[in-house]
């Protein structure tokens, strides 16, 4: 069956067309299901890129829920993985694009440090920058190279 989308004696706008199209071709059940998915969306095992794509797709189903850019950004940030979420929150994004940019930069830094096995140092250095700067006394001069000395084993775990 064919459905016709009609506009009574007024000029058709893109927003009006999208709304009429949605009502004509997408069921209420589907819209409500996608809206619920958006409200419950978490990054979980998704890559950041996959999470961004899914978030942007699902947010279209609930435009009345996130009417302000700051609300959209807050929802996006609340769905990020814990470590990434806290770093993005501390950066205070203004809008969704800002939050996505910050998360992307932080994840790139995070992934870059993964190869050097320094993730925990990365996270700590963001909150305690002075503690993780190498002291000159921690290095031994070997010609052109510096090699870090091994630190003695502590009998009790560190407090942080």
TrEMBL record:
Residues 9-104 form the Ty3 transposon capsid-like protein domain. InterPro entries: Ty3_capsid. Residues 117-160 are annotated as: Disordered. Residues 118-146 have a biased composition (Basic and acidic residues). It comes from the Eukaryota. This is Ty3 transposon capsid-like protein domain-containing protein.
């Amino acid at each position: 069956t064919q459905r016709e989308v009609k506009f009574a004696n007024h000029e058709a706008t893109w927003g009006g067309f999208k709304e009429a199209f949605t009502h004509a071709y997408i069921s209420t059940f589907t819209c409500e299901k996608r809206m619920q998915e958006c409200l419950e969306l978490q990054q979980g095992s998704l890559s950041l890129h996959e999470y961004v794509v899914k978030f942007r797709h699902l947010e279209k189903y609930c435009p009345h829920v996130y009417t302000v850019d700051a609300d959209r950004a807050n929802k996006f940030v609340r769905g990020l993985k814990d470590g990434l979420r806290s770093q993005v929150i501390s950066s205070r994004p203004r809008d969704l694009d800002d939050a996505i940019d910050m998360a992307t930069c932080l994840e790139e830094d995070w992934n870059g440090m993964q190869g050097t096995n320094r993730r925990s140092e990365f996270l700590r250095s963001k909150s305690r920058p002075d503690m993780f700067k190498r002291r000159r006394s921690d290095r031994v001069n070997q010609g052109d190279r510096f090699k870090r000395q091994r630190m003695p084993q502590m009998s009790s775990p560190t407090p942080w």
